[in-house]
Design goal:
- This protein is of the alpha/beta class.
- The protein contains ten helices and 43 strands.
Amino acid sequence: MEYKFKNYEETPLLEKHLNMGGKNPDGEEINVTSRYFTRGGKPWIGVMGEFHFSRYSRNEWYRELCKMKAGGITIVSTYLFWIYHEETEGKFDFSGDNDIRTFITDCQRAGLDVVIRIGPWAHGECRNGGLPDWLLTKPYKIRCNDTEYLEKVKNWYERIYEEVKGLFYKDGGNIIAVQLENELTDDAEHLATLKEMAIEIGMVAPIYTVTGWNSASGAKIPVDEVVPVFGGYCEAPWENHTHRLSPSPHYFFNRMRNDSAIGTDLIAVSDDSDWQLPYDKYPFATCELGGGIQVTHHRRPIIKPMDIYAVSLVKLGDGNNLAGYYMYHGGTNKIGKLSTLNESKATGYPNDYPILSYDFQAPLSEYGEVREHYGMLNMLHMFVRDFGESFAPMEAVDAQMPVTPDDTSSLRYGMRTDGKSGFVFINHYQRLTRLEDIENVVINTGNVIFPPINVRGDVSFFMPFNMDLGGNMLEYATAQPLLKQDNAYFFVRIPNVKAEYKINGKVYSGDVIEYDGIKIVTLSFDEARYTRRLDSGIFIGGGCDLYEENGKIVSVQDGEFVCKKWNGSEFETFTVNQQIFDCEVTIEDIETEPFEPLYKEELNIECERKRTWKKITVSSEYGFAETNYTGDAAQIYADGKLIADDYWYGVPWRVPCRLLYGRECYMVISEMKNDFYREA
């Protein structure tokens, strides 16, 4: 069957219409058009990953940032949670794991730009949305232009600036953007005031952002002062019920930017005014594509790699020109001097989250382990890095035959094009839903007709047409472009589809094709998800995740691996050998409680629950202690201190042995009841 598209009509490109943009000391500029961002005068697509410095050990920041860079991240976004830095009024703490300056310089050392999300309200599943308890006791209104509130915010902003002074893009630093507030949907005047205040204090950056989601009309924002950024999650654990959700709209090509479902636990879902966010003034940018999802006490989804990859690919096909993931790297909440710092119903919020764990089922876990979607997402990230200059100006065009949410048999497809060349996107995946295989799919872009392909199983991919390869016209490829290096172009073989390349009128196939001074290399999907573009070159991990730290190629996993490096004409093999340290883990049942748990509220959420205890002993600080417990919630105490916790959701719980070694450790598990949604 032939699949066509609606007519392409180029939209006007607006430039220098927003009060943004900036130059660094070298003369490079970052600017914003209505369709895409520019850097050095060229269209540019950044890849942004959220990583909260205060939820991780500063001793590991640089290593984890190197892993993020290896995964294709170019920008790190991070919240400054006010309560972490001024838990007691007037006593600021930017030391240790709160040292934002060192974190930003570690990002610069790793070759990463930074977006600081300065609040004052942040959310991030932090206590009070990150606002200190003492602020909430004040007699004035917050999150508005109340004079007394703004005095406190100014003081907060000034303290941030003291820490990050000299690190902005204009100074030669790597802070390229500032996010103001978060999920403030109805007060453009306050957002404008926050920007003005930040600039007056010295926080001058090329880009200022605010979250744009709200009802269908979008958040009310100061139109010319900020870029609204959006999101999309494959699940919604903040929903106030325990039933399976309807099919997510994020698996359909619908050009939807504003996911009004985000934050419905805290913000209104409708707007009675005549406000309409002028989307055509801004590039489609995201800050909260779900890199995973956090579990709440009442909703506990299990995230699969394709859940994440397919959403990101669909958004790319829908026009996304800033891929921003929340979270990209998990972390661990601190416990404050006055309280725990997690969001909970006890603090007036609709959800209960773990006291410590903020793993988020992210590409990089709470403890820095790699999940499968890390490598899969990187396939998209390498593509936008190498082809973004030509790809970013291309606009999304709808399929001629739209697909309804309950349709499991029709092809889901879209296109990005400049009218002559472009990319066809196909998503054959829906979370928790089986889609029927589709045979003999013929894509007609209007100027190129692809050969028939079969779309089978859980696949999500895109294919180029009329693509310039070193002066040669690639009319089409039934393979997904990955990256390029000099005269070599790398593609990914789409599962169940033969990779064919039509160049200057002739069709070619094979793993390596040489034509008129260029080389086309086709990698399998498994090879591609282990492919990394590092500072030292292009590598393929032999079943391991490679990254570069201090100029050395290392693997996230310990062991000996046969890997490959591109030498300019072919791949050469080499060995990565990282010593494996043994650690024996013993977990034994005990009948008597060794002590009264410090945080019984987490074990007894909403009702009294029986508790069982286990003793944990590890022989070294290396590796992980893994348990397949079943229950409601679990806590691990080391020498009487809470060091890890978990809401059971059906996957093994892994805790680093370094947290347990040399200590007397116990795990307590609370009784499971039928009071939450689960997929296990």
